[in-house]
Amino acid sequence: MTEVFGVPLPALLGQLLLGLVNGSFYAMLSLGLAVIFGMLNIINFAHGALYMMGAMLAWMGMEYFGLSYWAMLVLAPLVVGVLGLVIERLLLRWLYKLDHLYGLLLTFGVTLVIEGLFRSFYGVSGQPYEVPQALSGAINLGFMFLPKYRAWVVVASLLVCLAVWALIEKTRLGALLRAGTENPRLVQAFGVNVPLMVSLTYAGGVALAAFAGVLAAPIIQVSPLMGSNLIIVVFAVVVIGGMGSIGGAVLTGLGLGVIEGLTRVFKPEASNVVVFVVMALVLLARPAGLFGKVK
């Protein structure tokens, strides 16, 4: 059997694929964070709680209403997006001209409220969520059997990330969004409703988190704590990629997922900290992040 540095090649390739799956979640979540920070200048610490809320809504839809996975893949992001509209209109709109710390503290408070509500009703134990029938089973890759659902997660995440990047970077709407954050008065003079555009941007960013939560539901047990276990790593991903860099968030998320997978092969005990080691090294060499703009 072929080995690489003493590790069987099938085991190495298997961990690379599993790392790509984790990287897909990192990419989706960091994409939403990057959109919100890049467009609104808000550090959205509530992102992890809204990711958890997407997964919990998917489970509740199945448990209480018999709604399918495919229905909740649409409905959960819509519900969380509407909640994002409410949060932005009632709370965040007053903080745009203040220091980033105020937005961080406010969204941290929102996180505690959301997690506290779900914990009071469902506790902290995980709830199982079945893989949809159409995606059950596995694909024989020769060196491993890859579950069809995990393959779907990678494809869906990449398609959504590509679509969001193209929307913001390559369309007139994206140009208006970027201009509205730089000079809102000028954009409003052309008849654009900038406050509504800002609200929809935040709603879209948190809807991405909820979408990632629904994707995660069949892979990990759905729990009110699932967001808090992931958000610190996702913030590290955004910092490494460059705060506000959308392409940087996606590429860094995928890359760090693969690095994490490789670390599990060669040094399993270091896999939980490798992301933060990479972050420290990147910040020492390039404080703005790999794809961030140096001011």
Describe the model.
With 295 residues, the protein is mainly alpha-helical. It has one domain (3-228). Helices cover 69% and strands 3% of the residues. It has helices at 9-40, 47-65, 69-90, 100-122, 148-170, 172-182, 184-189, 194-216, 231-241, 246-266, 274-285; strands at residues 3-4, 7-8, 138-140, 145-147. The strands form 2 sheets. It has a two-stranded antiparallel ribbon with strand order 1-2. Strand 3 (138-140) and strand 4 (145-147) form a beta hairpin. Helix 1 runs parallel beside helix 5, helix 1 packs antiparallel against helix 8 and helix 3 packs antiparallel against helix 8 (194-216). The longest helix has 32 residues, at 9-40. It is globular and about 65 Å long. The N and C termini lie far apart (51 Å). The model has no long low-confidence stretch (mean pLDDT 88).
Number of domains: 1
Secondary-structure-derived class: mainly alpha
Using only CA atoms, what is the Rg? 19 Å
Give the tally of β-strands: 4
> Which residue ranges are poorly predicted, with pLDDT under 50 across at least 5 consecutive positions?
none
Strand order of the largest sheet: 1-2
The main β sheet shows up as:
2 strands, antiparallel
| Percentage of residues in strands | under 5%
Q: What is the approximate shape?
A: globular
The N- and C-terminal alpha carbons lie at a distance of 51 Å
The tally of helices reads 11
The ordered H/E elements are EEHHHHEEHHHHHHH
Query: What average pLDDT do the residues reach?
Result: 88
Helix content: 55-70%
